[in-house]
Amino acid sequence: MSSYRNAPLSSGHDYRELPATSYLPREIRHRFQHYLPYLRAAAQGAKKELIRIQRGEWQWKSLLNIPTALILAWTLALWWGEVGTFTSSVNRCDWHTWERWPESASPHHIVLIADPQLVDPHTYPGRPRPMSTITRYHTDYYMRKSFTLVQNHLDPTTVFFLGDLFDGGREWMPPGVAGSDPQWRRYGEDFWVKEYKRFGNIFFNRWLRREFEGFRAGTHRKLLASLPGNHDLGIGNGIKVPVRRRFNAFFGEGNRVDVIGNHTFVSLDTVSLSAKGQPDPATGREGATDGEGYNEEIWGRVEDFLATAKDTKIRAIGRAIRVQN
Question: Which has more confidence, 118 or 38?
Answer without folding.
Answer: 118
